[in-house]
Amino acid sequence: MALGKRIEVLEKNVQLAMANAVGPEVQIVDYKLRPYSEVKEGYVAVHYALAVNYKLPNNAQVQVYHFFLKTAHSLDVENAEALVFQDSLPFPREVNFFNKIIPSMLKHLKGDSFAPKCWLAMKDMLFFEDLGLIGYSTSKLKVQDYSSLKCLTSTLGRFHASSLLAEAELGKPLNQVDPEIFEDVMFLQDKTFLGGFLNTTLTMVADLVKLFGFKSPNIDKLRDFLIAAAKPSPNKINVINHGDLWKNNYMLNAGNPQKCILVDYQCLRYASPVIDLKMMLYINCTPEQRKMHERELIEHYHSEFCTTLEQSDLSLRIPEFEEIWKTYEEYKLFGVTFAAMYLPGLLMPESVLGKILGDPVSFKRYVFENRSEFVVPLVNSNPEYGSAIKEIIRDLVEVAT
């Protein structure tokens, strides 16, 4: 879509979003659009802060409403280059999720929502409430403290349970409501978006295994297990998985009690809830934290999950804790694989990671093509980083062989 046409579409959508957020009689005076952050944070979308000045009937006072705007294409006349992913799968998935699934998830949910308010979800634009203005922010820490992990666990429990509420509302499994929304993009190899992510990870693992002198796992067998186990289970609970629970995809506030909101619903899958739990606990805390608090946090998750179901006006089966815990133990291979996928990047010094993320060519190469060329030299030159990566690969080898 040409840039001028995008601006024209934006102006029409601002009116629709304001009508939903403020009311149908709203009169827009003007609006201002700017990049949401000086640091690039979106890799499958562009993020903007949108401030809309408006009036209401019988009130001459000009007021302002703030949106967090996500677009599939740049709206910046000075910087309209294409994104790495702009014409690929993830953005329409999130639009369809907010239009088709979220309303049924929230209809029977009592208490705090797990998602930001979305005032308008169009083909290539999403208008959200600006969580930053109500005290929410992403974490600047590489690993989270216990309080933040517990808060994230609570939100994840409500999110997963709400997908069962939506199924009861809609009368069929959610992956049958709109299969494309929940088609796994991380453990499938024939899709444009993240099609090479798993293979790039496993190639890097093989290179690091050789570098560290570990016994090599059967990479093909590992790949086959992950692809098969990421599909819906025929005999266990399946829920919507967020699928990308690294620190930029959830926001915490400093309130008492602390609250958490999940953002960026572009890697959704319909599968066992423990896949999300493994990701959360293997990429957001240290091994020491996980060993100390793992069962306690899963118990807390189970409590929040069950409470969400019990507080609804629907009659649903409440899973026993041991059912969740047993499956969690069986899926350990996901945890060590997620650690190998995410932590080599997240544990990099900020200056190194910033150069990769700030350059579209380097970012694409790191994610899809050859992660080893970035990770191996840093392992060899940075003892602290090398030691951390060695332990991650050691854990994977122990579980996979």
From TrEMBL:
The record's section on SUPFAM superfamilies has: Protein kinase-like (PK-like) (SSF56112)
Which InterPro entries does the UniProt entry name for this protein? CHK_kinase-like, EcKL, Kinase-like_dom_sf
Domain (CHK kinase-like) spans: 126-311
What is the protein name stated in its UniProt record? Answer: CHK kinase-like domain-containing protein
